[in-house]
Design goal:
CATH class of the largest domain: Mainly Beta
Shape: elongated
CATH superfamily of the largest domain: Hexapeptide repeat proteins
Structural class: alpha/beta
Distance between the termini: 56 Å
Strand order of the largest sheet: 1-4-7-10-13-16-19-22-25-27-28
Number of domains: 2
Radius of gyration: 20 Å
Length: about 270
């Protein structure tokens, strides 16, 4: 498919004839868009953005200067075969960012909708990033990481490969993530610890006081008692009946790396 006549392409940009550019999209000076790229409608590529082969993005995305999308995986075993980067709608990806496509043949890296990805970081091959996630500057997300919807990942963190960060979790700056982080809680530290409940995020997401109370009780059972993990999960399942409590249990039971079990002082003010 050709460049739509409603797109605006700077004279110094280089668009491969095998790329597809949607209506209303603006591509800035010195951008490079390779073959087999699909860019939807009303996107913005600021100057010096490079979109590499087998990348597809939806509508309304904004990509800032110096970003490279669809890079070859940073994997010594990669043999150059076809794999993909798929980006949804309404994302903002700021300056000097890199996102790799999948490692295995025909595999993919996926970003959902409405994410805000800040400057000077990396999302590696085969990651799955949900929707409405914030990833702050200088965060390094290793391969096969999964980050749930509405999570907040602060600046300067490193996330070990295959780790999972649950929905509406919040991770403090400069943390090292090498285990799974259950949803709805806050975490911090080089040896990352669970700190409390992400009340601000939960309120913004429309959770009721009662639902937040159940999440707080689940946190207490997991991190403020001497219960074994299995006993804590059993108690949560038997005594807490909200969808959020069920989601916490489901996330932990599905974990392959194991969850963070260290806990520190609670960071939030009590309600």
């Amino acid at each position: 498919m050709p460049v739509d006549p409603g797109a605006s392409i700077a004279p110094t940009a280089r668009i491969d004839p095998g790329a597809s550019i949607g209506p209303g999209t603006r591509i800035g000076e010195f951008c490079v868009v390779e073959s087999d790229v699909v860019i939807g409608a009303n996107c913005l590529l600021e100057p010096y953005v490079c979109v590499k082969r087998w990348t597809a993005m939806g509508d309304g995305n904004e990509v800032s200067a110096g970003t490279v999308l669809g890079t070859d995986p940073l994997d010594k075993n990669f043999k150059g075969h076809r794999s993909y980067l798929r980006i949804g709608n309404g994302n903002k990806i700021r300056e000097h960012y890199t996102i790799s496509r999948g490692t295995a043949e025909e595999s993919e890296t996926v970003l959902g909708d409405g994410n805000y990805i800040m400057t000077s970081g990396h999302i590696a091959h085969n990651c799955i990033i949900g929707s409405n996630v914030v990833i702050a500057s200088c965060a390094l997300i290793a391969g096969h990481v999964e980050i749930g919807d509405q999570a907040f990942v602060s600046g300067g963190i490193g996330v070990h490969q295959f780790s999972k960060i649950g929905r509406l979790a919040m991770v403090g700056g400069m943390s090292r993530i090498n285990k799974d982080l259950p949803p709805f809680f806050t975490y911090m530290g080089y040896k990352v610890e669970a700190r409390g409940v992400n009340r601000v995020g939960l309120k913004r997401a429309g959770f009721s006081r009662e639902e937040i109370g159940e999440i707080k009780e689940a946190f207490r059972l997991l991190y403020r008692t001497d219960l074994s993990l299995e006993d804590a999960l059993k108690t949560i399942s038997e005594t807490l009946h909200s969808n959020a409590a069920t989601e916490i249990v489901r996330f932990i039971r599905a974990s392959k790396r194991g969850i963070v079990r260290r806990s520190g002082g609670e960071d939030e003010d009590e309600d």
